Amino acid sequence: MTHLVIIGGSGHVGTYLVPRLIEAGYQVTNVSRGQRQPYTPHAAWNSVRPVVIDRAAAEADGTFGPQIRDLRPDIVVDMVCFTLASAQHLVDALRGHVQHFLHCGTVWTHGPSVQVPTTEDQPRRPFGEYGIQKLAIAEYLMDQARRQGFPATALHPGHIVGPGWNPLNPEGHFNPVVFSRLAQGQEVLLPNLGMETVHHVHADDVAQIFIQAIRNWRNAVGEEFHTVSPAAVTLRGYAETVASWFGREANVRCLPWPEWKAQHSENEACFAWDHIAHSPNCSIAKAQRLLGYQPRYTSFQAVYEAVQWLIAQGTVSV
Ligand SMILES: NC(=O)c1ccc[n+]([C@@H]2O[C@H](COP(=O)([O-])OP(=O)(O)OC[C@H]3O[C@@H](n4cnc5c(N)ncnc54)[C@H](OP(=O)(O)O)[C@@H]3O)[C@@H](O)[C@H]2O)c1
Hints:
This protein is of the alpha/beta class. Helices cover 41% and strands 17% of the residues.
């Protein structure tokens, strides 16, 4: 059996990816701190070997990479790498020891869009420490793959959605009250003209692309792929669509950013600004062509499933 070690496999993506891997016949080891449980129970988890390591602590004493190598993986999926130093430490330990190394990045490796849908080969101008570090990691991995033969692939998700957590909402932040307001016909405030974009992806489609990248090793190594739904949505279109699920017209008022910001909490404004400043709108053509990636969910289908879960929890009232 091919042994796959996933670092951070009990979160949003791992909830879907780990059962898919077990069903596909891989021997799976999940490395985490042992604090999180997958969002959805699945019998496949009985076949997963859990290994408890705190990456931050193990990196601090230089043992993380060697500990992962000592698990003797054929494939490593790294879900939780956020700094270049962290990536370098792991690659140094795994060089020559793995068949495939898959890194989970982000579409935040792009800054502002130029031509949309944005393709992977456009010049990238990230802003904010998260996107800057993620781009540094992706570029380092591509260099290692193309110059040194290290078998790396970087997969870049958009806003990950699924039942079990709050989806990014039509105001561009995570307060689920926006869904209740749309469901009840109450007013929702959109920044600017409501024409900025967000680009979701269902967690199961993120899982799908990891599987497809592993299956299409020749096309995947040394390459980066956007991992998003087939189409981004505007905030206005998103609000209108959510309202329509409840038989309503969206009661939307657009405000210039300073006025919008003044009417929201600091936390909401911080997330909304980050999302509208990026306004991602990414192409999946490369992943479709080279990996056979076929997302099962549109953005709206993915969010619909998440909102149904919020309603069932009593978080969103209709
Ligand atoms: N969320 C989004 O919308 C989004 C969008 C684009 C890209 N991404 C990327 O997606 C990746 C995250 O994937 P996810 O959303 O599936 O993960 P997640 O839901 O945040 O779960 C994190 C996983 O990592 C483990 N973990 C956290 N800290 C750890 C540590 N110090 N040592 C060992 N394990 C640790 C957690 O388990 P324990 O807590 O038990 O350790 C859990 O299994 C990141 O690379 C992020 O940049 C996310």
